User: Which sequence fits this backbone?
């Protein structure tokens, strides 16, 4: 709900929801109500998007957040004769038949009223074969050495907190979805444990400041006749390598 904590405005919004949901959600305590304003206050122009973010996180984590700083309802709000309830604490969002849905309301002072309905994303089966085929290249870049060191630490902590994360997907995001800055490092790892070890190892350090963007795609040192066999695991897991061409010469 938008819920400005006004004596008259909140009951009007509640009664509108009650009328709209009467036929599709007739059971008592069927639908939770909440507001982000109890967490951060009224953010004026950012209030709507803040509620949208909170709702998206609730869907992502399958959790119903508790109403912050809530003690009792407005006496003009009749929760007992409605399908709604106000959760006081965080609770699991039970899985029922079909996807989870949540609505977000935002009412502007100028008369702009918005209500959007969010649906949880469909579950997808990960292709874990990509992680088995490794190694995967994890490139990191930052504006200065301190920021690069922080990125290494953050990625290592992410892998620790999310042991089921796909290393292949992380590698692709780092390769294709990040800007390149002057201080860089790239680490090759076949699994999350190896990546964590190399992200904190002193022997893996930035080679220095990159002064310009080079057009070379990849460089593999060694004998040309053995190069293709050596880089085959990288080709199998790297979209950019598969779409490009590989040429080698003997050094």
Assistant:
């Amino acid at each position: 709900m938008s819920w400005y904590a006004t004596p008259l405005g909140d009951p009007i919004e509640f009664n509108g929801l009650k009328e709209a949901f009467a036929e599709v959600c007739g059971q008592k305590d069927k639908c939770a109500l909440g507001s982000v304003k109890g967490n951060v206050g009224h953010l004026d122009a950012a209030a709507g998007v803040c509620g949208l973010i909170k709702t998206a996180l609730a869907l992502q984590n399958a959790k119903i957040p508790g109403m912050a700083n809530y003690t009792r309802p407005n006496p003009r709000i009749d929760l007992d004769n409605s399908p709604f309830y106000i959760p006081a604490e965080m609770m699991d969002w039970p899985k029922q038949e079909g996807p989870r849905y949540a609505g977000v309301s935002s009412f502007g002072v100028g008369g702009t009223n918005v209500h959007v309905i969010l649906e949880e994303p469909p579950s997808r089966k990960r292709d874990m074969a990509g992680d088995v085929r490794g190694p995967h290249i994890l490139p990191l870049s930052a504006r200065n050495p301190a920021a690069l060191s922080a990125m290494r630490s953050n990625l290592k902590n992410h892998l620790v907190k999310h042991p089921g994360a796909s290393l292949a997907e992380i590698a692709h995001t780092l390769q294709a979805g990040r800007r390149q800055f002057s201080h860089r490092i790239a680490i090759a790892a076949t699994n999350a444990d190896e990546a964590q070890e190399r992200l904190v190892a002193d022997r893996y350090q930035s080679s220095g400041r990159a002064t310009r963007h080079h057009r070379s795609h990849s460089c593999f040192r060694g004998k040309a006749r053995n190069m293709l066999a050596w880089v085959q695991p990288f080709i199998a897991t790297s979209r950019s390598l598969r779409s490009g061409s590989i040429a080698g010469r003997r050094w």
